[in-house]
Structure formats: structure tokens, C-alpha cells
Amino acid sequence: MIETKNIDRFFPVAGREPFQALKDISIVIPDRSLTMLRGKSGSGKTTLLNILGALDAPSGGQVIFDGQDITKLSDKQREKLRREKIGFIFQSVSLIPMMTVYENVEFSLRLSDYKGDRKKRVEECLHLVGLGKRMQHMPQELSGGEQQRVAIARAIAHRPQVIFADEPTAELDTATSLSVMKMFQDLVQAQGITIVMTTHDTGLMDAGDIVYQLEDGALIDVEKRKAFAENEGKEE
Questions:
Q1: Does residue 2 belong to any structural domain of this protein?
Q2: CATH (domain of 52)
Q3: Would you list the DSSP string of 153-214?
Q4: Residue 198 falls within a domain, yes or no?
Q5: In this structure, how many other beta carbons lie within 10 angstroms of the beta carbon of residue 202?
Q6: I need a surface site. Which of 47, 161, 191, 206 has the fewest CB within 10 A?
């Protein structure tokens, strides 16, 4: 699905040498996997996620997305890629407060110019995340975990190939975090969606198929869940 080749990212710093946030990052994100980017604050995981999701461009290297080098795309082409093939979930769910749960998800379909039956798709996604009976509620009437479920429904509604989630469980309690991770696993297995997420929570590592660990902008370790590694070997 996605491969990076020798990704570097520099940020300008007034009066000093540019800060290197990413250093020669080469990773592979298989199709239909739950891949985690693990690291402390400042490790570079969010910077890498933004580059993978075409929200930012690397200073050097390549990002191959579904066979296409997206570093060579124009801003308009990158925006089209994000709108049609990518879904995003952020730490702050950012639901529109004056819209109902249903309207928040339906609005995302309008933004992506979804061609199918919007009503059917919204209801399908909200049932999928366990909120079929809360469609007409306002965001402020929901718990933090329920709001994150709406954000997940919103992200998957237009049938993206991949979802990028930046610290999606950071503001949730342990039980709710585990519930969200179980939902991610179900989406990968049942819906065939590829999910890439950042986290610093070591308690969630077992949920990932692949865990890339970053430190000071460099890749220092990679772990593959045994069952996933065995299946990957069989496919090869």
C-alpha cells in the first residue's frame, strides 16, 4: 500500500541550522494492516504521519502510495488524493458542534463528493461503530469515546483505502482506548481498510500488526506481530 524511501524532513529555524525532524526513514505499510508509529513527543511520528497522508511533503526521499510517487504530485493532485482515498482521525475529534451526529458524517461525504446513497452510507457507518441509535444527538451529548466513534465513522464513510490516525486514544481512558483499538482491528479485518496510527501508549502495542518505533526523528526498531509476520511470509 505505502512505502517510504529515505525520507528526510527539515524545518527552518531562525538564525540557526534547519532542524531535522526525520532522518532517512524507509518503511513499508502493507495493505490491510494496522500499523503503528510509536514514539515519545518530539520523536517525529506525527511529522511522518502527515507526510504519509499527503498533508506535508518531505525535504528528501520518496513516498510511494499505491504505486504512485506522491512527492511528485501538485498541490491540487495531493488534495484530490486526500479527498478520495484517505481518511483522517485526529486526537481532537473536531466534530461540528451545531450539527447532529448524522449531519457530521454526511457532511464528510459531501466534502469528498461521494457518488453513492449518502443516507444509506451514513447509517451503515454509524451502525458499524455502535451509534445507530445516537444519530440525531448533538456532539456535546456524547461521551469522549462516543465522539471518537463518530470521528471514525466520518473517516471511513467515503470508503478510503487508508486511514491515518494521530494519537486517536490520547484523551480516552484505558477501557475506551482498548475499545477503539478493537474497532480498528475489526475495520482492518472485515472492511479491508489499512490503518496507520501514532501513539505513545505502550499498552496498545499488541493491537498492531506492525510497530515502527521512532526516536529523535530516526527509525530505531520494527516489530511484527507473529501471526501477521507468518501470513506475510505465506503471501510472499
A1: no
A2: 3.40.50.300
A3: HHHHTT--SEEEEESTTTTS-HHHHHHHHHHHHHHHHHH--EEEEEE--GGGGGG-SEEEEE
A4: yes
A5: 9
A6: 206
